Amino acid sequence: MPEEPTEDGQVTLFDQRIRLIIDSDVDNEIDDPFALAYALGRPDRFDLRAITIAPYQNDRCASVAESIDRSVALVQEFLAVAKRPELPVIPGARQIMASVDDAVESEAVTAIIQEARRAGPPLVIAAIGAATNVASALRLAPEIEGQIRVAWLGGNPPYWSHTWEFNLAGDRFAAEALMSSRVPLIWIPCQGVASHLLTTLPTMERDWAPTGAVGEWLTQLLRGYVTDHQDYAKELWDIAAIAALVSPALVEVVNESKTPRWDESLRWRTDAQFDRPITRITSIHRNAVFADVRQALRQIS
Q1: Host domain of residue 195
Q2: Is residue 1 predicted with pLDDT exceeding 50?
């Protein structure tokens, strides 16, 4: 998980049980419930305090506000299968940020701020959607920068031709606010990193469905995701953020003194960076991660 920042402000990974909030656009794509299941199945690593709901925008729903309601409903369905209905599910922003200095108030933002202020080890937020809730919390309560750590999955790595990616583009102002903040940040890029976490329906049916009710429920999500599974593999992007917090043995990282920034067309700038350090995940050990997820599913089924 994120350790206390080093002298240059960078974040490292080490073994310790984590006080965790998962901030997720759960209904947007099927990988989000996989990430929730992974965290729930590792109570030795995570004290999961809540699931906060991040907004999304696509053709699945008529509005950002509707995306919140759809995600809440799906999380509640998942938690019923996992026999964890008591876990708080907290609605987030029903609109995205209007500027990098904006903040969108919501129940999720209030919960993040309150949990960050509690005594104990720093709160870690696994942000696996648009960064609206996290960035808004930092804008409304800037003093919590020193009390939280964030693992954010979004954008593409600096060597990619562009940084356009769903989570970043879903609220580019929130992404900029998060990336330019002083909060210790683990960044998990998508293409070439999280995109490596591919699975197929035959693999799910053989390895994960037999683990129990949650494994079968997740397998059914993949089964219904596309109509033709021949030669098809699905990225389970969001489990990368959980894997990065489970063990340093599951990922490769680089600590950098500057944070990449993008231009108006969401292409990487070569002339400027954010003047703050960052820990970037550069690769993920897919086989080891999937083996660990399978064992985690056995713990909640």
Answers
A1: 18-300
A2: no
With respect to residue 3, please indicate whether it lies within any of the assigned structural domains. Answer: no
Examine residue 99 and state whether it is found in any structural domain, yes or no.
yes
**Is 1 inside any structural domain?**
no
CATH number at residue 93: 3.90.245.10
In a domain, 7, yes or no: no
What's the CA gap between 225 and 30, in Å, rounded? 8
Of the candidates 252, 241, 257, the residue with the CA atom closest to the CA atom of residue 9:
257
Rounded CA gap, 244 and 253, in Å? Answer: 9
Helices (H), the chain: 31-40, 64-81, 107-117, 132-140, 166-170, 172-180, 201-203, 213-223, 239-246, 286-300
**Number of domains composing the chain:** 1
Residues 6+ apart with CB under 8 A from 207: 290, 294
At 119-172, the pLDDT tens digits run 988 999 999 999 999 999 999 999 999 999 999 999 999 999 889 999 999 999
Question: Which residues neighbour 222 within 8 Å (Cβ) at sequence distance 6 or greater?
Answer: 30, 199, 201, 204, 234
Whole-structure pTM value:
0.95
How far are the Cα atoms of 17, 116, 164, 260 from residue 264, in angstroms, in the given order? 39, 32, 11, 14
